[in-house]
Amino acid sequence: MSRAFLVVLDSVGCGGAPDAARFGDEGANTLLHIHEQVGLKMPNLMKLGLGAALGISTAETHGLHGVAREVSLGKDTPSGHWELAGVPVPWDWHYFPDTHPSFPPEISAMVAEFCETDGILGDCHASGTDIITQFGEEHLRTGKPICYTSADSVFQIAAHEETFGLDRLLQLCQHMAPILHGMNVGRVIARPFVGEDVASFKRTKNRHDYAMKVPSPTLLDWAKADGRATFGVGKISDIFSGRGVDESRKGFDDVLMGHLSDLVDEAPDGALVFANFVEFDSLYGHRRDPAGYAAHLEWFDEAIGPVLDKLRDGDLMLFTADHGNDPTWTGNDHTREQVPVVGAGVGAKDIGQVMFVDVAASVADHLGLTERGPGRSFL
């Protein structure tokens, strides 16, 4: 029985979204601009057809390749992943203004009351690493949580994993999540960090996303309904609020590659493995670091080679993305882009331009699932 591996390279967009101007992102192109500014050596994905999908190579390809467009009105993680799993977002997200303060006073008061402090720190748009540098030492002195947001529909809370307490931070986020979800804020994110001072602060792997529940069954649910084993690698379980995921494996990207490799060895016939590699976005896109982004892409390409070599006859492995985050662009937020779709296991095929929901329909088609969703299979 066939297996399917759907691998999301978080933020690895390829420009060309027809509504990019609406988001202030006309001309953004994550992969092309990295290639032009730094250069990219990605022989494994290029051989499958990544270069052809981007229009930067006419070399012979051996895999499925094309690009996908999103219809959900966002450029965020839940919108992209939900739609790739067959469920476009049926509402507009709530975004906090880029002002200081960013949050309604009643929200800040609820956080402070839970923490038994006389206020919060941050209360603004910020980079997660920058705001820890700015407020980390004050947080250690006062115990006040660091709350911040971005151009995405998120409410993020950073706190020291030891002095504030990881369990306490998770309880705080869990307490605030239904309140913020009621405002159509997509995610409440716990951002624990460690260190003694600004020189040693660093975020840990214990991030946890409390996402709004998906409004209808997704590819993961379709697979489970047909009795298939489902695995989430990275933050997939968080994005889908645990729904449809039998087993979740987490860690930093190098650890996640090991998990993906192990699942190629271990996943039973008929299984669905849904993976997200986040550090393209979190470490290099938001920080506007083209060289770092390029290096991580090249690391991924080299590491995925042996994994591809282990695929069984009948396996499908698709690589795609959820949005863009052009590191050469202005600001430090996601960019509205279409995304590449590159696949191994079904031979050479140019699928042209498809929709995000077609990815879910195609994976379901490959697995022979009963439900296919609103998309059309490109296999």
TrEMBL record:
The gene is deoB. CDD domains: PPM (cd16009). Binds 2 manganese ions. This is Phosphopentomutase. GO terms for molecular function: magnesium ion binding; manganese ion binding; phosphopentomutase activity. HAMAP family: Phosphopentomut (MF_00740). Isomerase that catalyzes the conversion of deoxy-ribose 1-phosphate (dRib-1-P) and ribose 1-phosphate (Rib-1-P) to deoxy-ribose 5-phosphate (dRib-5-P) and ribose 5-phosphate (Rib-5-P), respectively. Pfam families: Metalloenzyme.
